């Protein structure tokens, strides 16, 4: 139950190296089943276009999960995340091909708090659009 | 149609207990492409100080909306589900969700507001074990597109 990152080793303004996460149609089908969110806009192209979307789009929570993975991989312990919030600012369009879409997540240490906690500001982009805004995690470091 | 502001502050009865299984955690971790051993390997989780495998931070979305769903389906609220998209999501954790947990969620509508042409509604879910131990609090904000027009 301990983060591998030490509080004394991080500084405000420090950037966390960006990571690319690929999302294909098959990921969305799996996520629908695992999460219980079977909204057709996440797997049925015909339905998505009928309701005015450009194509099938990823679940917002799928994108949030990638930002979460970015934080937990950095912190070393998922249990070190004490607060995690995002706003869904744009959709991630997932074409029906082998490439799918790419969600690029990056982060920066925004603040150092008491009790060895830090605020990590997160940015998630897909196709040059910012898909998460106001994305922040508070992490308990060691 | 504007949402009924009288619903702000309403709480709903706790959900039926949700039993967290190792299999479901593994399925969820696989779906998000996360190979962290703490989500899959009981021994690795124990070595890290947990009694069993833990769940990824966004896992509570699987069960935390059950109680709130009843609120949103109330015809008196005036919500048009066809126009709903997910606006914001936040989790405050007391501890991670752990396999074997039996969890109940209690939903409260905490806010309804207008933003441009849209209506925004926030449901807070307090997640505890069946023994009453707090585990996390989730905040789910949905957007009803055009609801305020």
TrEMBL record, chain A:
Lineage top rank: taxon: Bacteria
Xref: InterPro entries: Fatty_acid_synthase, HotDog_dom_sf, MaoC-like_dom
Gene Ontology terms describing biological process: fatty acid biosynthetic process
CDD domains: SAV4209_like
SUPFAM superfamilies: Thioesterase/thiol ester dehydrase-isomerase
Pfam families recorded: MaoC_dehydratas (PF01575)
GO cellular component, one term: fatty acid synthase complex
A GO molecular-function descriptor: fatty acid synthase activity
Sequence ranges assigned to domain MaoC-like in this UniProt record: 12-121
Family, as annotated: Belongs to the enoyl-CoA hydratase/isomerase family.
Protein name: Dehydratase
Lineage: Bacteria, Bacillati, Actinomycetota, Actinomycetes, Streptosporangiales
TrEMBL record, chain B:
SUPFAM superfamilies attached to this UniProt entry: Thioesterase/thiol ester dehydrase-isomerase
One GO BP: fatty acid biosynthetic process
Alphabetized InterPro entries for the sequence: FAS1-like_DH_region, HadA-like, HotDog_dom_sf, UPF0336/Enoyl-CoA_hydratase
Molecular function as annotated in GO: (3R)-hydroxyacyl-[acyl-carrier-protein] dehydratase activity
Cited Pfam families: FAS1_DH_region
Positions in coiled-coil regions: none
Top-level lineage group: Bacteria
Every FAS1-like dehydratase domain range: 7-136
Spans through the membrane: none
HAMAP family hit by this protein: UPF0336
Protein family according to the UniProt entry: Belongs to the UPF0336 family.
Listed name of the protein: UPF0336 protein E1267_13505
């Amino acid at each position: 139950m301990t983060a591998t990152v030490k509080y004394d080793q991080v500084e405000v303004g420090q950037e966390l190296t960006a990571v690319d996460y690929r999302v294909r149609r098959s990921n969305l089908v799996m996520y629908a089943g695992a999460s219980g969110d079977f909204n057709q806009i996440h797997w049925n192209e015909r339905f998505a276009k009928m309701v005015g979307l450009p194509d099938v789009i990823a679940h917002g929570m799928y994108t949030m999960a990638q930002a979460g993975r970015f934080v937990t991989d950095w912190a070393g312990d998922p249990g070190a995340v004490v607060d995690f919030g995002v706003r869904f600012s744009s959709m991630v369009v997932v074409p029906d091909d082998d490439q799918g879409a790419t969600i690029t997540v990056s982060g920066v240490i925004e603040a150092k708090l008491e009790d060895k906690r830090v605020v990590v500001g997160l940015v998630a982009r897909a196709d040059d659009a910012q898909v998460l805004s106001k994305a922040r995690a508070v992490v308990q470091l060691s | 149609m504007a949402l009924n502001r009288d619903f702000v502050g309403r709480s709903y009865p706790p959900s039926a207990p949700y039993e967290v299984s190792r299999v479901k955690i593994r399925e969820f971790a696989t779906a998000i492409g996360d190979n962290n051993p703490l989500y899959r390997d009981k021994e690795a989780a124990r070595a890290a100080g947990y009694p069993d495998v833990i769940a990824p931070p966004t896992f509570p979305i699987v069960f935390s909306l059950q109680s709130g769903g009843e609120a949103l389906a109330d015809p008196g609220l005036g919500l048009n589900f066809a126009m709903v998209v997910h606006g914001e999501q936040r989790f405050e954790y007391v501890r991670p969700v752990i396999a074997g947990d039996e969890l109940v969620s209690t939903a409260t509508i905490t806010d309804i507001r207008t933003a441009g042409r849209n209506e925004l509604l926030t449901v807070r879910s307090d997640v505890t074990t069946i023994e009453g131990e707090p585990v996390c609090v989730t905040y789910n904000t949905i957007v009803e597109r055009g609801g305020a027009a």
